[in-house]
Amino acid sequence: MTAAPASDPDGLLAEQLLRLTRRVHRIQKRHLERRELGITPAQSRLLRTLAHYSSPPRMADLAERLEVVPRAVTTLVDGLEAHGKVRRVPDPANRRVIRIELTDAGRETLRELRAARRAAAAEILAPLGEREREQLGELLNTLVDGPQVPPCEEGATGRARDGEG
C-alpha cells in the first residue's frame, strides 16, 4: 500500500483508519478463533445485533439494521439456528410473522464474543497510556456520533453488504 503524500493529511488519516480497521479485524478474528465458537464474523454480528433488541425482532428488522437483504439474514439465521444459538418464534399478535430470539447457548456465545473483543481491544490499546486512551475515546465518540451523511452513490444501488463486522 502506498502512503498518502504529506501534503494530503486527510488522505493519510483515511489510510491510517483503514489500516487500523483491518488490524482490529485480524486481531478480533484471531481471538475468536482461539475460543472455537464455530460461527462466522457475519453470524457474530447478527448475534450482537439481536442483543440490542428488548424483544425478538422480525427478520426484516434485522435485515434493515444490518443493512443487508432479507435473504442474507435468512442464511445467517439458518446457520445460527442449526448450532442452537437462535430460534424462530411466532409473533404472538400475528402467527404468520416469525421473530428471532437468542437461546441460552446464543447468550453464552455473546459472552464469549464480548470477552474476545475485550481481549482484542486490550492488545490493540496496550501501547497507549490512560490519558491517551481517554483522548482516543473522545475522538472516536466525535467521529461515531458526528453528523449523519447520506450513503455514497455505490451504497445507494441496493446491493447488500456482506454483513460482516
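the 2nd protein, sequnce then structure:
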Amino acid sequence: MKLIIVGCGRLGSALALSTARAGHEVTVVDRSAQAFDRLGADFHGRTIQGEVLHQEVLRRAGIEEADGLAVVTPDDHVNLVVARIAVLRYGVPNVVVRVYGLRHRPLFEELGVQTVASALWGAQRLEQLLTHPGLSTLGTFGHGEVSLVEVRVPASWEGQTLDALYAEEAIRPAVVVRGGQALLPTQAHFVLHEGDLLVLAVSRQAMKRLSDFFRHPQNAEASAKPQ
C-alpha cells in the first residue's frame, strides 16, 4: 500500500517505522527536517520537508495515488485541514487522524475519517486503522500471534457464505451478531447479511488477507471453490 504520514513526532515516526517494516510504501511529511532524525537509518521510505497545508507538498508526497493517509501533527486545526484536503480534494480512500481535543472529534467524523483520541492507542492501533480499514481488534493473545477481530459485514458481502473464511486455516469465525442476537456460525455455508457483526480469531499473518476478503468478495468467493 502507498501510505502518507503527515507529522513526524513520536507517534508519527513510530507509525512510519512500523508500516515501512511491514512492507508498505511510506512517505513522511513534516515542516521540520530535523523531525526526520527520529526515523533513524533503518527507515527506507521517503521524507518530504515542507508546509503540510500546501497542496503542492502533499502532491509531492503522492497524495493523488495514496491508499491511506495518517495525520498526526500536534495541532487539531492543521489535522482537520489536511484531512479535508485528503478526503474532499483528492479522495484518499482511508484517512486516519490523531485528535487531541475531544470537542473537535465530531468535525472529523463528519468527514467520515477514522479518529484516535487517546495516546494509549499508540502507533499499533493507528497502523491497524491505516492498513486494515474496517477491522477492529477486540484483544490479542500470547505475544500478539492471534487477535480477536470484529468486522461489520458490508453490502458487498450480502448473501456470501463463510466458505472462503473457513478455507483459511489462520482465520476462524467465532460469533455472528445479527439484530442483537449472537449466533454460532458452525457451518461453512452460513449466510452473511449486510450489517452483521462478525467476530473472528485471526493470526497476525492473516490480517491482510482478511481485509482483502471484505474489500474484494468476488476474489474470496472464487478462492473457496474447489480447483
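The first strand starts at residue 2 and ends at 6. The radius of gyration is 19 Å.
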